[in-house]
Design brief:
With 179 residues, the chain is mostly helical. Helices cover 57% and strands 2% of the residues. Helix 2 (57-67) packs across helix 7, helix 3 (69-75) runs antiparallel to helix 7 and helix 6 (112-134) runs antiparallel to helix 7 (142-173). The longest helix is centred in the last third of the chain and has 32 residues, at 142-173. It has a two-stranded antiparallel sheet.
Amino acid sequence: MGSIGFGTAATSTFAAPAAATVAVVEPVVEPVVEPVAEPVAGPADERPSVAEMRLPVWFFGFEGVLAGAFDLLRAAPSAWPALVVLAAVNIGVSLTLMRRRLKLAKLLWRGKGTRNVAFGLIGLRLGSHLVLGLLGTAVDTALGHVLFALVMGTVTVALLAYVQRTALGALVAAGKATA
């Protein structure tokens, strides 16, 4: 019997006629060259700019009014339909006019800084009402509640604008946005 080697002609350990020798031919393997895709300039490859992502400060006014809603309702209990309409307008504006900026809004809503702002505002509200109650100067007039709502709304807008600025700075530093 004979043995067959790869890459060479078959050899035999016995003396066999030359016609019985079988040649093994190696297949030719050509390297596959995959085409290199050229980068396509398009909206999917471009990093958004800070100006494109920034939410306007007036948009935070919705959140400011809603932050003062407790005191507004204490001052004018019949204002609840207006607050419901304002909340609906806030959602409508978020999903339509601010659609391109919704990515930043989602980042802000999920961000640690925004949670800190929310907990800070709750703490400010409860703490200030508690301190004022302990001092004997609790807010119990309509004017007092309106003023308190204005303070809470202003603080909310200022803190959300600060969180947005720091979030945009972090996106630029991470290379996910341009300045």
